[in-house]
Amino acid sequence: MNPRNYYIIDFDSTFTQVEALDELARISLKKHPDRELIYKKIEDYTNLAMEGKLSFSESLAQRVKLLEANEDHLKQLIKRLKKKVSSSFSRNAAFFKKHADEVLIVSGGFKEFITPVVSQYHIKKENIYANTFVTTGDGKIIDYDHANPLSEEGGKVKLMQHLNLEGDLYGIGDGYSDFQLRESGLIKKFYAFTENIARESIVKKADHVTPSFDEFLYVNNLPRAISYPKNRILCLVIGEVPEESINLLKKDGFSIRHKSSFEEKYVADVHMLLLADEEKIETEKLKRAVKLKTLGYLGNAKKLDLTTCTEMGIVVFDDLKNNPRNRNFIPKRMIDFMNTGTSYMSNNFPNLQLPRIEKSHRLIHIHHNVPGIMAQINTIFAKHDINIVGQFLMTNPTIGYAITDINAEYDKALFKSLKKIDQTIKFRVLY
């Protein structure tokens, strides 16, 4: 029998985008005359502990002293934290529901604010391990339970030794206390989570750097909301492209490289291209960019070989009128295409605009516009007993663009069959 897997997940700057005690300080000290100075002290104590430069127990004690918080502040904090769950955790709620018995939240934070946040993601209360506050009768926070091992230096190690779980343990976090679990030998692998913050001293010690929870699920072949992590999607930006355009793509999680030219080393691996006005791409390079899915041009795409782009299934969005708003509009169109398959306002593709359908997988099939392709696609679905939730087809004189949403159960051999259909240009699983 295979050993059971357990997933040990940190809370601050991992499950959530922020450090909760830092946020609590900004609430409780809002009217304090020296609030900025105190904020800085609390943040410094946090970072010193996370980088392993100060014992966790000393860091925690100093931070709690500075908070001047009460239960009303905690209520405000919980509302804020619920809006600050890391995007890749939020979209993978289904994973937590399916693996509720194997997911543990282990944190040096406090149950009072952790439990209300993670419980909405199907994580069991008995699997939440954290510190607890000590309050006065009127609700003022004056201390914490010093008997809790998680309040001590090496607390996560002490807790996991006590739990003595049988199986393979995987740790996900951003700080030194998370790495200590790997150092102790209690967990099989430590994944440095960098979606919110990358601490170099921790990253270099990790077994694997995971820029998102999608990446963790992907490398461990676990069920996930999207088929391929965005951090693995290479987006090459060429020329003098405005920072706001680049930042939109970064914010969505793509792996960005900003270069002055289309360097040879990127040709075979690039998935997305954003070009400044007047930049050119040689036809020969386009033909070898076999993974390229979309190209945004902050100028007139007539300077490109659009015929080759179309033949290769590359969706092009351009800026015909040099409109200032297009520095946002063009990257947004690229993002929409990568996320939902929307080709709305493309220069060379049939215009297809459609919503994301929950609890389904979206398959994109780009093919030459010849008779009988959809019949072949649906025959394959029938052979594999696939339930079609929704199907969309748009064509132009050159290509057909088909999107099919299917239910969550499928045989991976299905994908191989769809790729083998004659006249197929590109096929991908969107999510």
Automatic annotation (TrEMBL):
Entry keyword set: Amino-acid biosynthesis, Hydrolase, Magnesium, Metal-binding, Serine biosynthesis
Signal peptide: none
Cofactor dependency: Mg(2+)
EC number of this enzyme: 3.1.3.3
PROSITE patterns given in the database record: ACT
A Gene Ontology biological process term: L-serine biosynthetic process
Domain ACT: 362-431
Cellular component terms per the entry's GO annotation: cytoplasm
One matching Pfam family: HAD
Organism superkingdom: Bacteria
Pathway given in the UniProt record: Amino-acid biosynthesis; L-serine biosynthesis; L-serine from 3-phospho-D-glycerate: step 3/3
GO molecular function annotations of the record: L-phosphoserine phosphatase activity; magnesium ion binding
PANTHER family: PHOSPHOSERINE PHOSPHATASE (PTHR43344:SF2)
Protein name per UniProt: phosphoserine phosphatase
The organism's taxonomic lineage, starting at the top: Bacteria, Pseudomonadati, Bacteroidota, Sphingobacteriia, Sphingobacteriales
